[in-house]
């Protein structure tokens, strides 16, 4: 008697599938919060009276992608750069959002503790995607949305650079 045994499949998704799931979730969170694919290129400010003004910069629209920069209007005292901040690329056809670069800032790094250096590009991408996911969830809970965004004239950007 011959018994055919099917290969055992993992109960949990693989690491790559998990990362792609995070990218998809980040896309949907961004689309629900700010609908950046409907915004003209330029800078937008979201103020909800909590002292943490959020800047969304729509850098450029391409045929299938939207380039974004998301940051608070708080300069990092050590670097002078806004922190935290994330540079994003939304792929409208695949419905995923990728963090191409992020800066958490020295204050947040001191609060959360130092992360060990990523050994691989995959680990770095996973950390950036997870950071964006938690940040977008927090922004939604605080009340940031498309309705709280207002266009910022280029002359006033220096206060939130």
Give me the secondary-structure topology:
Blueprint: H1 15-34, E1 42-46, E2 54-61, E3 65-72, E4 85-91, E5 96-103, H2 106-112, H3 121-142, E6 149-152
Antiparallel strand pairs: 1-2, 1-6, 2-3, 3-4, 4-5
Helix pairs in contact: 1-3
Keywords for this entry:
161 residues; alpha+beta; 3 helices
Describe the structure.
The protein has helices spanning about 15-35, 105-110, 120-140, and strands at about 40-45, 55-60, 65-70, 85-90, 95-105, 150. It has three helices and six strands. Strand 2 and strand 3 (about 65-70) form a beta hairpin. The model has no long low-confidence stretch (mean pLDDT about 85). The longest helix is centred in the C-terminal third of the chain and has 22 residues, at about 120-140. It has about 160 residues and is α+β, with helices and mostly antiparallel strands. Helix content is about 30%, strand content about 25%. It has one domain (about 15-155). The chain has a six-stranded antiparallel β-sheet with strand order 5-4-3-2-1-6.
Number of domains: 1
Largest sheet: 6 strands, antiparallel
Distance between the termini: 73 Å
Can you count the beta strands?
Answer: 6
Order of helices and strands: HEEEEEHHE
Helix content: 25-40%
How large is the share of residues in beta strands? 15-25%
Structure summary:
The protein has 161 residues and is an alpha+beta fold. The chain has 3 helices and 6 strands, in the order H-E-E-E-E-E-H-H-E.
